[in-house]
Automatic annotation (TrEMBL):
<dbReference type="Pfam" id="PF04199">
    <property type="entry name" value="Cyclase"/>
</dbReference>
<protein>
    <submittedName>
        <fullName>Cyclase family protein</fullName>
    </submittedName>
</protein>
<dbReference type="InterPro" id="IPR007325">
    <property type="entry name" value="KFase/CYL"/>
</dbReference>
<dbReference type="GO" id="GO:0019441">
    <property type="term" value="P:L-tryptophan catabolic process to kynurenine"/>
</dbReference>
<dbReference type="GO" id="GO:0004061">
    <property type="term" value="F:arylformamidase activity"/>
</dbReference>
<dbReference type="InterPro" id="IPR037175">
    <property type="entry name" value="KFase_sf"/>
</dbReference>
Length: 322
């Protein structure tokens, strides 16, 4: 890879792995089309003991965001409280009291999905549409996240790169670029239940989230981090996975792999060109421990976005069932 020419490196991969038109001119789901009823039925068969694991970070003021591009942590405010109920000032009859609350937050401030309208490539959105025709001041009118509300239920596969590549710590160092060879060798090491194929949702654990929770958020949001290399674009395309999520802020390795200015080049290839849905800031710690204990790395994964009309991303509380 030429570290001096991000434009050419991104462009070559965008052209080589572009899925525009693959599911028709009107498509709004991209690689989520790989998940069909048979795939969901297969995934349901993976539930044996009924163990349920949430893969979401807490949504609270103690999150990782520092205000970059107006991304803040969730602000939770009570509208009615127990004190109001005790004082009888809520206006309800026969002693009834209640509590109510509101939350204000960017949709991508914690565990979330990037929708297909989140990233553009030279002014073009997923499926070759002009970016301005897709996302306007009213939101994503074509590929809004609400269209995926019932789609993201499938076989999940955990690839624990942290434990595999760094068994002593279980954590990849910041700036480590995960290659396709790393992914393949991790699959081989974890065994048959880690095989990745059409319609699967791949979860990549780097250990970065665990380090941030132990040592403090620091620059977790936007700083140096392990992540996928731009060179994995072919693997992400050829495996025909439906979606992928990591335990990092930005999915791909940071700093990005160039010696000149570049920003999230793998996003530029996979979202608008491959049509791949990406998840970020997932908490994979309990799941990794559970998979290691059970000796299997596949499970039913239910991770639907909130059907927020015309949104380009969504908070999510993913659930793995084993």
């Amino acid at each position: 890879m030429n570290r001096q020419d991000p434009e050419a490196e991104i462009g070559a991969r965008a052209e080589a792995y572009r899925n525009w038109g693959r599911w028709g001119a009107d498509d709004a789901l991209g690689t989520l089309n790989f998940i069909d009823d048979a795939k969901r039925a297969e995934a349901a068969g993976l539930v044996r003991g009924g163990t349920s694991v949430s893969l979401s970070q807490p949504f609270d003021m103690n999150g990782p965001q520092k205000g970059w591009r107006r991304r803040t942590n969730p602000v939770h405010t009570m509208l009615d409280t127990g004190t109001d109920a005790e004082r009888g000032n809520q206006g309800f009859p026969h002693g009834l009291g209640g509590a109510d609350d509101v939350i204000a937050m960017p949709l991508q401030c914690s565990t979330q999905w990037d929708g297909l309208g989140h990233i553009f490539d030279h002014g073009y959105a997923w499926n070759g549409r002009r970016a301005g025709d897709v996302v306007t001041s009213d939101g994503d009118l074509v590929t809004g996240i609400e269209q995926a509300a019932s789609a993201i239920v499938s076989r999940g596969v955990l690839l624990d790169l942290g434990r595999y590549l760094q068994p002593e710590t279980g954590e990849l160092p910041d700036g480590y670029a995960i290659t396709a060879a790393d992914l393949r060798s991790c699959i081989d090491a974890q065994g048959a239940t880690s095989a990745v194929g059409t319609g699967d949702i791949v979860l990549v654990r780097t250990g970065h989230y665990a380090r941030a929770r132990r040592d403090g958020w620091g620059d977790y949001a936007g700083g140096a981090a392990p992540g996928l290399s731009l060179t994995t674009a072919g693997w992400l395309h050829d495996t025909e996975i439906a979606a992928i999520a990591t335990d990092t802020w930005g999915f791909e390795v940071r700093p990005n792999e160039f010696d000149v200015p570049a920003f999230q080049p793998l996003h530029q290839v996979v979202i608008p060109n491959i049509g791949l849905t990406i998840g970020e800031m997932w908490d994979l710690e309990e799941l990794a421990t559970t998979c290691e204990q059970f000796g299997r790395y596949e499970f039913l994964l239910s991770a639907p976005p909130l059907p927020i009309t015309y949104a380009v991303g969504s908070p999510v509380n993913p659930i793995a069932l084993l």
